[in-house]
Design brief:
Layout lengths: L2 H13 L3 H22 L6 H24 L8
Helix pairs in contact: 1-2, 1-3, 2-3
Length: 78
């Protein structure tokens, strides 16, 4: 999984308005991020990308939480 892959999936999740599709996009983005973290391991020079991943995961959690509170989705909170 490349940096570009998880970023594209994250971007698609962030802009999705359909609650049913949003759930799938968030799950795919989270899975891609997990795979990317496994790929990075302890690779030197990955600090900026790791920070971007932390930020992306935080945004996805907030998105899921917001959707749950507003009743637009049945996603489970983190």
């Amino acid at each position: 999984m490349s940096e570009r892959d998880w970023r594209e999936l994250f971007g698609a999740a962030i802009i999705e308005l359909n609650p049913e599709i949003l759930k799938v996009r968030v799950e795919r983005a989270e899975a891609a991020i997990t795979l990317r973290l496994e790929t990075l391991g302890k690779e030197a020079g990955s600090v900026p990308e790791r920070q971007a991943i932390v930020d992306a995961l935080s945004s996805l959690r907030l998105l899921k939480s917001t959707r749950n509170q507003s009743g637009h989705s049945n996603m489970t909170p983190c």
